[in-house]
Amino acid sequence: MKQEKLARSAIDSQIAGLAGWSLDEGLGSISKTFKFASFVEAFGFMTKAALVAEKLNHHPEWFNVYSRVEVKLNTHDAGGLTELDFKLAKAMDKAAGQID
Ligand SMILES: C[C@H](O)[C@H](O)[C@H]1CNC2=NC(N)=NC(=O)C2=N1
C-alpha cells in the first residue's frame, strides 16, 4: 500500500500525541532514545519491536549500546514521514512499556 507523505500539520498533530519523540530537522524523521535497566531488557524490546516492524513491513533505523536504544523512523519509499512511522512509534512505546 502506497503511503502518502504527511504534511506539516498532520505531523504536528501526530507528534503531539506521543511522549519522548522528537521531530528531526527537515521534518524527514522522528527519533527517540529508549533506556532500559540492562542489555537484556533493551534486547527484549528490540525483539518485540522487530516482530511488529516485520508485520507492518516498516522497519526502524536503530542503534543499540548496552541498555540504550536510539530509534529513528521515516519512510524511505515516500521520502519523509507517513502514518506508518507513527504507527510503529506507538507500537514501540507499547513494547517498551511491556519490558519494565
Ligand atoms: C519493498 C519494501 O516493501 C519496502 O522497501 C519497505 C520495507 N520497509 C520499510 N521501512 C521503512 N522504514 N520505510 C520504508 O519505506 C520501507 N519500505
From TrEMBL:
A UniProt-annotated Pfam family? Pterin_4a
Give UniProt keywords alphabetically: Lyase
Task: Give the EC number(s) listed in the UniProt record.
Answer: 4.2.1.96
Report whether Hydrolase shows up as a keyword of the record: no
UniProt-recorded Gene Ontology molecular function terms? 4-alpha-hydroxytetrahydrobiopterin dehydratase activity
Which Gene Ontology terms describe the biological processes this protein takes part in?
Answer: tetrahydrobiopterin biosynthetic process
Instruction: Give the top-rank taxon of the lineage listed in the UniProt record for this protein.
Output: Bacteria
Catalytic activity annotated for this protein? (4aS,6R)-4a-hydroxy-L-erythro-5,6,7,8-tetrahydrobiopterin = (6R)-L-erythro-6,7-dihydrobiopterin + H2O
| Stored CDD domains | PCD_DCoH_subfamily_b
Protein name, UniProt field: Putative pterin-4-alpha-carbinolamine dehydratase
Q: Which organism is it from?
A: Rhizobium azibense
